[in-house]
Amino acid sequence: MPHRSVSLNRHFFEQRMVHRELVGQLGAVITQIAFATKRLSLEVSRAALAGRTGAAGASNATGDVQKKLDVYSNEILIDALSGLGIVAAVASEELDHVHILDNTVGAPYVLVTDPLDGSSNTDNSGSVGTIWGIYDAAAPESRGVIKKIETEDAMASIKNGMPVAAGYVLYGSGTIFVYTIGDGVHGFTLDRELGEFLLTHPNIRCPEKGKIYAANVSRQHDWDPRLQKFLQALTDPKPNKYRSGQKAYSLRYSGALVADLHRTLLEGGIFLYPSDSESKNGKLRQVYECAPLAFVVENAGGRASSGSVRVLDTPVHTLHQRSPLFIGSASEVALCEQFLSGEAG
Ligand code: AHG
Ligand code: MN
Ligand code: MN
Q: Which of 96, 195, 272, 300 is most buried, taking the most CB atoms under 10 A from its CB?
């Protein structure tokens, strides 16, 4: 019997009895995101050939120098969602404000996105990714009311709601599409010849515990001392009560959150980007980096925290607000929180 290839559309169709929305407007948006990321996978791999490496000559709202691929990725993603009449607004790392799409009166969804994550890797062929999340555009009390979504509606949805779907795409040695609508986390690998994402990682579960941590340890001297003690507990060559006989953890850090997150999701461990004296609230952005990935990791049995608050409970005040991020296996993230609260260490 040949291996049954399950495409994204077939995967949605097979779930239609339980998740009708996957063969409706929600499935259509996720399919369009997948389409855009197929294009992005190609463009990322040929950036040097197309003259799309290097800086674009401007900075984004969080002060990051925009790379040409940041700007191009944002354009490709918005282009794929325009004209559908399903996405009313896009909140993007690369746009100062929420972008209201044309002709979207009554459109049910808002997209949050980091169109290209890991931009420091674009010119050295390192791994990069796309992060996305989908929210209901209208508040519960006004769902079904046909109205034009304005910026304040979109921000209200992002502030008050949980994502209805979230995921990421890793442009690494393979192009991997991972998504959840809150009922399991599923991974697909791009078959370039077919031009299809095929199911390769059904029902991903994040291991309860791992052996790897990911952090930019060049900032370690500047971290909360209780966090330095946590890292000491993971890396001390001498066994300790926090490692229950396990060897010291290894360090893996790629400079692209999506790449480090994907490895952590599959193999376990913890990714951490804490606050420090330079970045009082950390570097990563709550709306389009931390929250979508927290939704994915929690639905795979993992945990995601700002260090003291669950990421998905972190109050959102502004579109580009930063937040410290501790994400991965439930065991390590919980232990990290205990060190930070003084319960351990
Ligand atoms: P982006 O390219 O979207 O700005 O994200 C970069 C982020 C994240 O991908 C990565 O984990 C982190 O920046 C790396 O930061 P450092 O270079 O400070 O380690
Ligand atoms: Mn990013
Ligand atoms: Mn980015």
A: 272
Record: fold of 212-341: D-Maltodextrin-Binding Protein; domain 2 (3.40.190)
- Ligand 1 pocket test, pick from 112, 113, 261, 283 with the greatest ligand atom count within 8 Å of Cβ, gives 283
Q: Classify domain 8-201 at the CATH topology level.
A: Fructose-1,6-Bisphosphatase; Chain A, domain 1 (3.30.540)
Residue-wise pLDDT tens digits, 85-110: 999 999 999 999 999 999 888 999 99
Report whether pLDDT(161) > 80. Answer: no
Ligand positioned closest to the Cα atom of 77:
3
Ligand 1 mean position, distance from CA 160 (Å)? 26
Give phi and psi for 17, each to the nearest 5: -70, -30
CA-nearest of 40, 42, 44 to 125 is 44
Reported pTM: 0.97
Confidence of residue 3 (pLDDT cuts 50, 70, 90): low
Q: Whose CA is closest to 73, among 113, 116, 33?
A: 116
